[in-house]
Design brief:
The complex is a heterodimer of chains A (110) and B (813). With 110 residues, chain A is mainly beta. Chain A has one helix at residues 101-109, and strands spanning 3-8, 16-22, 25-31, 37-41, 55-57, 60-62, 69-71, 87-88, 90-93, 96-100. Helix content of chain A is 8%, strand content 41%. The radius of gyration of chain A is 13 Å and the shape is globular. The model of chain B has no long low-confidence stretch (mean pLDDT 89). The chains are: A mainly beta (110), B alpha/beta (813).
């Protein structure tokens, strides 16, 4: 398994997100109030809204365009909406944020 | 010929007695009222909110000169009574003698001044009337002023909290081992002390004052332990004693107070007494509820009806925001008594119930007082509590296993249960008012005064309405803010203020949010409410803002943004236009559009380019147009009298002034203004949130228009003659909206709820209130009249608009 160093948690606002650009589109890296980090695709399956610009609450994010809510843990749309976003493994080691690159490559195969 | 009634003293008890008398029979007496204070009657228990700045004096006036005049009462305000001559049946005033058939003494009480050296120095005051309150407010105006409050009882602590709220250094000196020892036990006293200390008030218990030091005015307080506390103001709040001098001089029977029988008659049957000056069966009265009961009896006795005053249990509440306490009954320990105590230190909650046999005899609560009235009822009614003893401390919701419907609880209350503590209104009076035709909260409030003072009982009054009217009552649809809470926007706004909640975590914790940190619906609302209420103390939270406000640009459907620079009052210059054109070229802006608010919109800017385009526009002297904000957007204008042959005033100039005054302010929803130079109304000012139409003789201000999903013409607010007045009224109106509006209610929706009349009263008729609102607006603007583009396009902030990492480059390598 290979991990890509993408920065430090301090560069992401608490209850906020930043994006990582990849050849296959943007990945959103979220930081919760509890300083947990999650990585998902940045596109809302509804109308393509940038999830990294949404409001982060608990372990969920709300899309800024039409208020769809997604779980950051499993990527499922919440409530009455039906949809799924990709989630990726991300971890903190020695203060650095590491993103699982194999998963990103699997993304290209999908 | 009508009989003559003289009333001495215009306090709360006499005011209420006159009301009952006049309601029952307007023509029974010719009434003359003497009052040493040069004014009518006000709600003395609300002086604390006046001191702390939460209320204006005008708001607590209950009977002004006009009320007395309407009701045929001859007022001798500012005239002291010298003596009562019972033989001739006259009252001797400073200016004249007046004859009576019946006399009512309502002289109240005088503060007790402890006899220490220095007690007469200037700067030593009691806390009793408006003059004292004003003296305290004046003293607090000096920079770094210090106050010592002697007495840690109800009144002393309210004074201390009020002075602290006005910025003074405050020390409370209390003789006893814990605060409010007559109402609280030690544990509750400790929690109260901690809460006051958290507010920055210093508390010294077991401290006895031995002298007040100073030459020409007060300088310090010397305690028995030789410590010296510097002071510019000393407030004595150690107690009151009945004011009985007139009665004693007239040889009426007096013990500690003027003794009265059950009909409120003194030893002279033609002379009655009411209020804090009386003693009834060896008991004195300081709280308002029994005084109001006495007032009823007085009115009946004067009308020769039978009535008996029987004192009831009373409960105490402290009017200091952020200190919730409740105390009633007797909580002293005793061999036959048992305690049930509940503590939750983390929440700062403490409850203690004292039982004797199968009855509850006392209750003290701190931190969570929601069930206070229910316990009070159990004590008063001597309810047998043996069946519910195990769960008693958890309150009415936990009795009988299932949670009790709050409606059922209200329905079960007896008619004499007090609903409104401030105005002493019981359930029966509210039910009477409803049966007489009051069908909503406003009507009940205006006819009974229930919920008209502090308003904390509004919910209870509505429940009485609901249980009385049944299906006829349409409870205002109270939608909770979101799924994270059951509270409505209005409740949250009120609680943020009354509990002094100054951060989002404080709101989530104190108001019992069901989610760890809210959601996309409640967080922006909370962020706004906190920012509007505590502009200097609350730190804005960008993560609780919708993306537009976080990025200070409008997100478009494809994830790009639009950028709108401000054009003050719709004016621009060739240089500005060139800068906008250059920016459009440089950042490949695909669409340039003129907005409906007289500005230029650059659509299709990439998120990461935002700081750079802002920096360029800033360079040309332009700032953010807040075209994305729940805040001031534009002030649309016509060209006014400089160019137009019909223009009557400089409408463009006024528009610019207004925009420069209001820009940057956050409001519950977007705010758009228009200024037209004549009634032809080329700026379409009469469909804006606030519109001004200039006419020859001045400026017509109207509000609550809309031209969005709903289209609505503005309603006339007022007309003024100068630009300065127009700007002040618009600032005050905006602030009123900021302080009271529900998040995401445009002005027209908000005005429909509160009523235009109410707004007119607050910002047009009441000039002091208008100035206070405008001042609070200015305080908020001292923080927020600021260009966010300049802040975010700095070297430190700008990189945050780009990606955290760019793996496309790595792949290319």
């Amino acid at each position: 398994m290979s991990w890509l160093d993408i920065g430090t948690i301090d560069e992401i606002p608490v209850r906020g997100a930043r994006i990582v650009k990849t050849v296959l589109g943007c990945v959103a890296i979220f930081r919760t109030a509890e300083n947990e980090v999650f990585a998902t695709s940045d596109r809302c399956p509804h109308k393509g809204g940038p999830l990294s610009e949404g409001i982060v609450h608990g372990r969920k994010v709300t899309c800024p365009l039409h208020n769809w809510v997604f779980s950051l843990e499993n990527g499922e749309a919440q409530g009455d909406d039906d949809g799924q976003i990709e989630t990726y493994e991300v971890k903190i080691e020695a203060g650095r944020l590491l993103l699982n690159s194999e998963e990103l490559q699997a993304r290209s195969a999908a | 010929m009508k009989k003559k009634l003289i009333v001495i003293g215009a306090g709360m008890a006499s005011g209420r007695a006159l009301e009952h008398l006049i309601d029952a029979d307007k023509d029974a007496y010719d009434i003359t009222l003497f009052n040493a204070e040069p004014r009518g009657n006000y709600n003395r228990i609300m002086l604390s909110p006046v001191l702390s700045g939460d209320k204006e004096f005008q708001e607590i006036v209950t009977h002004d000169a006009a009320w007395y005049e309407e009701n045929g009462v001859t007022c001798r305000f500012g005239e002291q009574v010298v003596s009562i001559d019972r033989d001739r049946k006259v009252v001797v005033g400073q200016n004249a003698e007046v004859a009576y058939d019946k006399l009512l003494i309502a002289t109240g009480s005088a503060p007790f001044i402890i006899p220490v050296p220095g007690k007469n120095l200037p700067g030593v005051i009691a806390y009793r009337d408006l003059e004292d309150t004003n003296a305290m407010i004046d003293a607090s105006a000096a920079p770094q002023a210090k106050a010592v409050v002697i007495g840690g009882g109800l009144l002393g602590l309210e004074a201390a909290a009020g002075l602290k709220a006005r910025g003074m250094d405050v020390t409370v000196v209390h003789l006893m081992g814990h605060l409010m020892e007559r109402q609280l036990d030690e544990a509750a006293g400790y929690l109260l002390r901690r809460a006051l200390e958290d507010k920055g008030i210093e508390i010294k218990c077991n401290a006895s004052t031995s002298a007040i030091l100073g030459e020409d005015k007060v300088e310090a307080v010397l305690l028995d332990d030789k410590s010296v506390i510097p002071a510019d103001l000393v407030v004595m709040a150690v107690g009151i004693r009945p004011e009985t001098r007139l009665a004693t001089d007239a040889a009426i029977e007096v013990e500690r107070g003027i003794t009265v029988n059950d009909a409120m008659q003194t030893s002279d049957p033609d002379i009655l007494a009411v209020g804090e000056c009386v003693e009834h069966r060896k008991q004195l009265f300081g709280l308002v509820a029994p005084l109001y009961d006495q007032a009823k009896v007085v009115a009946k006795t004067l009308l020769k009806e039978d009535a008996v005053f029987a004192p009831k249990e009373v409960a105490t509440k402290l009017k200091v925001t952020g200190c919730d306490l409740f105390s009633t009954g007797d909580f002293a320990e005793g061999e036959t008594r048992e305690d049930i105590v509940f503590r939750d230190p983390a929440r700062g909650v403490y409850k203690r119930l004292v039982l004797e046999g199968n009855q509850l005899v006392g209750a003290v609560m701190y931190g969570d007082t929601a069930d206070g009235n229910w316990f009070f009822g159990l004590i008063k009614d001597k309810t047998d509590i043996s069946e519910m003893r195990e769960t008693l401390i958890f309150g009415p919701a936990f009795q009988g296993g299932a949670s009790l419907d709050p409606m059922a609880a209200v329905a079960a209350l007896p008619l004499d249960a007090e609903i409104c503590g401030c105005n002493g209104v019981c359930k029966g009076q509210i039910v009477d008012a409803i049966n007489a035709g009051a069908t909503d909260l406003g009507a009940v409030r205006s006819t009974t005064k229930a919920s008209a003072s502090c308003g904390t009982c509004s919910g209870l009054v509505e429940q009485v309405l609901a249980t009385t009217l049944g299906d006829d009552f349409v409870l205002p649809t109270a939608q909770p803010v979101c799924g994270c809470t059951e509270l409505t926007h209005e409740d949250v706004r009120r609680l943020i203020k009354s509990k002094s909640l100054k951060s989002q975590p404080a709101v989530w914790q104190e108001l019992g949010w069901s989610t760890p940190n809210g959601c996309h619906t409640c967080r922006p609302a909370l962020n706004y409410y906190l920012l509007a209420d505590w502009p200097l103390e609350y730190a804005d939270d960008p993560q609780s803002r919708f993306v537009n406000e976080r990025k200070h640009a409008n997100i478009q459907k494809d994830g790009t943004y639009s950028v709108v620079p401000r054009m003050w009052g719709g004016m621009t210059t060739p240089d500005e236009l060139r800068a906008i054109a250059d920016a459009a070229d440089k950042f490949n802006v695909p669409t340039v559009h003129v907005t409906g608010g007289q500005r230029i919109d650059l659509l299709g800017v990439k998120g990461e380019d935002l700081p750079a385009i802002w920096a360029d526009l800033n360079q040309a002297g332009m700032v953010s147009g807040h075209a994305y904000s729940k805040g001031l957007r534009t002030v649309k204008t016509c060209v006014g009298k400089d160019h137009c042959r019909f223009g009557t005033q400089d409408s463009t100039g006024l528009g610019i002034k207004l925009e420069k005054h209001l820009w940057g302010s956050w409001t519950p929803h977007k705010l758009k203004l228009g200024v037209s130079g004549c009634p032809r109304n080329c700026a379409e000012a009469t469909c804006k949130d606030i519109g001004i139409v200039c006419v020859d003789s001045g400026y017509e201000i109207s509000v609550a228009g809309a031209a969005g999903m709903e289209v609505k013409q503005t309603e006339f607010l007022c007309k003024v003659t100068t630009e300065e007045e127009a700007i002040e009224i618009i600032s005050a109106f905006t602030q009123l909206y900021r302080e009271n509006g529900k998040y995401l209610d445009r002005i027209f929706k908000w005005v429909a709820k509160v009523g235009l009349e109410w707004c007119i009263e607050k910002v047009v008729d009441n000039i002091d209130n208008r100035k206070a609102l405008a001042e609070r607006f200015e305080i908020s603007q001292s923080v927020y009249r600021d260009d966010p583009w300049a802040k975010l396009s700095t070297v430190k902030e700008a990189p945050k608009f780009g990606p955290l990492a760019n793996l496309t480059l790595e792949a290319a390598e």
